[in-house]
Amino acid sequence: MPDDDIDKARRRFLQTTGAGATLVLAGCSAFDSDSEETPTETPDPTPTETQEETNPSESETEDPPESPSGQVEQLDAYPRVKIASVSELSTGDVVEFKYPLQEQSNFLTRLGEQAWDGVGPDGDIVAFNALCTHAGCNVAGSVEPEDSRAGPCPCHYTSFDLSKGGLVNMGQATSDLPQIELEVDGGDIYATYVEGLVWGYHNNLRTGTPIEAAQSD
Amino acid sequence: MSHHTDVPIPPTSAERHSTACRYCIVGCGYEVFKWPVGEEGGPSADENAFGIDFPAQALGGNGITTEMHTVIEENGEEYNVIVKPDDDNPVNNQWSSGDHSVRGGSIAQTLYSPENDTEDRLKYPQIRIGGTLQPVDWETAIEAVARANELAMDRNGPNGVGQKLYFYQFVENTYAGTKLHFDVIGSPNWGGHNRPALTPENPGMRNAGLWQFAYDYEDTQKADNVVMVGAEFYENKSIIFQEHIQLGVQDGATPVHIDPRQTFTSNYAQNNDGMHLQLEVGTDAVLLSSVARHILEQGWENTEFIEQWTMRERSTIDDEGWYQKEFGQTFEEYQEAILDEPRYKPENAAEITGIPAEDIRSFAELIGKPDENGERPNTVFLWEKGLIWGFSHENSAALGNLVLLTGSVGRPGAGLSRGGGHQEGFWMGGPAGEAIGEHSTQTFTTSDGEEVTIAPDTDERVRNGEILHWHVIGCDPVRGSYNTQQLRNAVRERTSGPQPQSAEVEEIARAWAERMDQGGMVLTNQEIYPRTTTEFADIVLPATTWGEESDYHRWNGERRLRQYSGFMEGPGEAKPDWEIFSLIGQEMGATDMDWGSAEEIFEEIASEADHGVHAIKAIHDKAQEEGKTTAEKVSEMDTTGIQLPARLEDGELVGTDRVHQPEEKVPGSGRFFTSTGDAIFMQVDWNRVEDVFEELKPDPSNNEIWVTNGRVNRLWQNLYSHTRDPQIIKRFKQNFIELNPADADRIGVEAGDLVEIRNDDVYNMYGENTEGSFTAIAYVTEDPPQGQIVPEGTAFTYWLYPGQVANDIAPAYLDPANPNPSYKLAAGEVVRLGESELKEEMSFQARNIAPE
Ligand code: SF4
Ligand code: FES
Q1: pLDDT below 70 — which residues of chain B?
Q2: Which residue out of A99, A170, A198 would a mutagenesis test of the B interface target, given it has the greatest number of B Cβ atoms within 10 Å?
């Protein structure tokens, strides 16, 4: 049942944020503010703890402007951002991070098997945008690294193969889960690009607040 | 290929067209936005045609994915087109908004466009001259088709011509096509896209007075039990599953899945306190009759319903028609037959079906037993091709009988329906009964020794030489028929005789006459893309399709009629199918086929359609009152449309949520569709098919296993459009075959190996058995988290993959009384050919993981 899934998602999120708390960048999902408007039967697509667990950054405490187009600070290119270090990431971990906008949730995981565009010594570290490409629900809570799978999505049960570029294995999504391109530099993992359109956006770099690029050494 | 990373937002000035999905039976409401390239809307609500702020809200129905957008070209101008689910209609907006499946979500990628892989759309009429298809003008092409018809009729009367036509591609086109065939030509040799004769698909229900699409989708939300037989609902009726059934289950309904495979829907049922009855391939009728037997033994049958609503007199049943006389039963006869048949005892049925007797009894209790207050459960019975393309009479009768036994029909939460495949857009335009009655060369001998004329198996008449000109429209019979390897061999041989040496019509006619005299055949293929059948075609007629030029009409699985707007031009010189039929008809002397538009045809249909389950005259009458055309009136109803039959109540136009309600809702019919309005129990006699079943069963001494076939989530029909969308087809770049690891081990194959499936003894009721084979990629999953999708001894493959055709081993067994094929009952030996180049690329993850 979707509700159980959400509970599981929450538990997993709490577990994983333990290890990854310092890595979770500021900001809440673009969809949290809308969750009250979704039908009561609808599982909240995003673990609500995201709001509680993270501290809104300065810029987010400002009153939101009337129209999203007003608040766009356009990014012209994908930033290079440090999101984790290889040594802190064990097989089976799932760590959420924001990229390239503060409203965009992604997850980083280590599968234990080599994956397409995987990084790290075993080529098994991958990251994906967390929004299901079908209708935008958050699949970060449904990641099963031991099966190299995200899903079934809590909403309409699409599952994605994380070892094959986020390929839709089964379900209603038409496009792969957008893969976050990663680079490893001196043991640190950097996000550098998003391959594919993040659900709900018309452009991955618009209608949101850019995260601050971390300094690279 | 690299993915797009942005999509344009439609400006407030974008044109909006209302339509419904191009594909499956669910018939989700869709809308199309079209605007010139260069103009763009903004991300705030007042700057765009959706009226929403971007980013779009999850589950809100307004996200634009890259798959929903394309750019088309018209008259040298470029236009953005977005094809997206509509967020305001009852089909795909119950649990979430603007829901869609993987199929519907990618329609934009299939529109004719320089951006899409659609360059091979058929654009010009062609005729095979000197052995090669060459472009010709429309006049020559139409004359040639008319000449082919005349030559065939000169030699073999109307029987010389056969037509194979889709059931779904809009009422205007099927009306014009069947008018040409049954009225102008008068031939009995007609097959739909999925079967070779003009037969009911569910003879054991249709002849019992039960309609195959009787429910309202929302009934599944109100039901106590949702029983799904021989159909993978999540994958293939996706939005009925996720917007309707799932709400019912969340509300306490018990889901039951009856299927030889353990699919997503099976696991969903099991994870939600329901049941999966994983029966042996082909044994549905035994299982369902055993359930009936337990209900009868416990006295749980709905006596009140049976007394009031089923035919109780033998003589009334006999008067209904030969089919009812042969197979119809009074309740007493039915009861006796079921109780007298030892095979229907749960313990014995367990042996045949593989379902434990206790599960048979539990399922009987679930749907049959009244509660302590005498209240009966509301069950919605749903089924599809797993049932239909087994033993079609026995299977459909056995399920129909359960509906009558429980009386679970015609009230909220209770009813029956096919899950369905495609949407429905068939309207008979000519006197088919007359043509079949006068000319059919196929008969059935009843148990009284009476010989009755029945609709002919036309695919067999292509093989045996009766048909001299075969006109195939919008379907691919050399892949979609039974025993297709043999059919292709026959078609290749029969079209390979004398060839025209120039495009001069007299020369064309000379060569074809000679060919026909040598036992050959001329093949006309009216299509949107070249397909397997096109390889053998003498004449190719390019057609337009969904969204192109004409405004069309059809309905979905709850009989919801909508308008499908034409919003773009077709390619090259392609014409709408109705116009092609009209030109051929006029060339052959018809004076009543000179329609100027699809709208005119719809008006003609609507003005007459005053009775039956698809009555639409009420819309026509209301439109006239308001000074509109019928098409304009339907268009006003946008994506919501109206559920048929349409009726006038106190002068107001109303639809009908479900049929078979106790109060008569269907103009001209009683509660059930028989002469008295009472339904009929139908005989289910396993002796009728048992010998055939034994022959069809896999022969272990030949290493055979069941190789059954069907749809999968992301592929649509014969893949005419989905091979063209890289995002879709990359999941299955070749056909695949699901194998249980135990079988894979035994055969010595692993995931990603290329295998051949062979049967050198394909059953053929018409003569010697034949050979068939096809190749596929072995799909094997070790240790799937929720169980193997196929049991040992049963494999599953996609049914219509281009070039790797599962029907090549489908048996030529058709019910003698109602020639429907048993496509699903195929078996073969799986042999390893080698390692496939897709081995590394393809994902072999479990495809049946349901939420726990
Ligand atoms: S469920 Fe069927 S009608 Fe709905 S979007 Fe999918 S293919 Fe189209
Ligand atoms: S939002 Fe994930 S499957 Fe629909």
Answers
A1: 1-4
A2: A170
Place of tokens 């008449």: B461
Query: Is residue B850 less than 8 Å (CB to CB) from chain A?
Result: yes
Interface predicted TM-score of the whole assembly (ipTM), two decimals: 0.96
The interface residues of chain B toward chain A in range 35-64, judged by CB-CB distance below 8 A, are 42-47, 53-61, 63-64
Pick the atom of ligand 1 nearest to B102's CA. 6
Average pLDDT over every residue of A131-146? 98
Alpha carbon of B317 to those of B209, B295, B303, B323, B680: distances in Å? 11, 24, 19, 10, 8
SS (H, E, C) B112-129: CCCCCCCCCCCCCCEEEE
Compute, in angstroms, the gap from residue B558 CA to the centroid of ligand 1: 14
State if residue B239 touches ligand 1 by the CB under 6 angstroms criterion.
yes
Q: Is B774 helix (H, G, I), strand (E, B) or coil?
A: strand
Which pLDDT belongs to residue A69? 41
Asked if residues B474 and B169 have their Cβ atoms less than 8 Å apart, the reply is yes
- Nearest Cβ partner for A155 among B59, B67, B845: B59
The 10s digit of each residue's pLDDT in B294-307 is 999 999 999 999 99
A38, A45, A174 ranked by CB distance to B727: nearest = A174
Q: From the CA of A139, how many Å to the nearest CA of chain B?
A: 12
All structural domains of chain A: 81-195 (2.102.10.10)
Query: Does B726 lie at the interface with A, CB-CB under 8 angstroms?
Result: no
Question: Degrees (nearest 5) of the Cα angle A43, A44, A46?
Answer: 130
- In the prediction, which pLDDT does A41 show? 38
pLDDT at B4: 61
* Of the listed ranges A31-45, A191-205, B257-271, B452-466, the one predicted with least confidence: A31-45
How far does Cα B100 stand from its chain's mean position? 19
User: In whole angstroms, what is the distance from residue B330 CA to residue A162 CA?
Assistant: 58
pLDDT of residue A76: 78
Q: Kindly give the pairing relationship between strand A188-195 and strand A179-185.
A: antiparallel
Q: Is the pLDDT of residue A42 over 90?
A: no
- Say if A130 is an interface residue toward chain B (CB within 8 Å): no
Residue A38 has a pLDDT of 32
Q: Please give the domain boundaries of chain B with CATH numbers for all domains.
A: 15-110 (2.60.40.4210), 126-198+425-587 (3.40.50.740), 214-282+292-330+358-419+680-684 (3.40.228.10), 689-835 (2.40.40.20)
**Would an 8 Å CB–CB cutoff place A154 in contact with chain B?**
yes
pLDDT at residue A26, rounded to an integer: 29
Residue B404, classed as helix, strand or coil, is helix
**How many other CB atoms sit within 10 Å of the CB of residue A33?**
13
B7–A174 CB contact, under 8 Å = no
Q: Is the dihedral of CA A117, A120, A124, A125 positive or negative?
A: negative
* Ligand 2 site-directed mutation target among A170, A172, A175, most atoms within 8 Å of CB: A172
B19 lines ligand 1 (CB under 6 A): no
What percent of chain B clears pLDDT 90, i.e. is strictly above it? 99
pLDDT exceeds cutoff 90 at A23: no
Beta strand B442-445 pairing with B522-527: unpaired
- Residue A51: pLDDT above 60? no
CA distance B175 to B272: 44
Nearest CA to ligand 2 atom 3: A156
The CB of B104 under 6 Å from ligand 1? The reply is yes
Chain A residues with CB under 8 Å of B237 CB are none
| Residue A14 or A201, more confident | A201
Which candidate, A5, A122, A124, A103, places its Cα nearest to that of A54? A103
Exposure letters B167-182 (e unless 16+ CB within 10 A, then b) = bbbbbbbbbbbbbbbb
User: pLDDT confidence of A74, banded at 50, 70, 90?
Assistant: low
A29 pLDDT exceeds 60? no
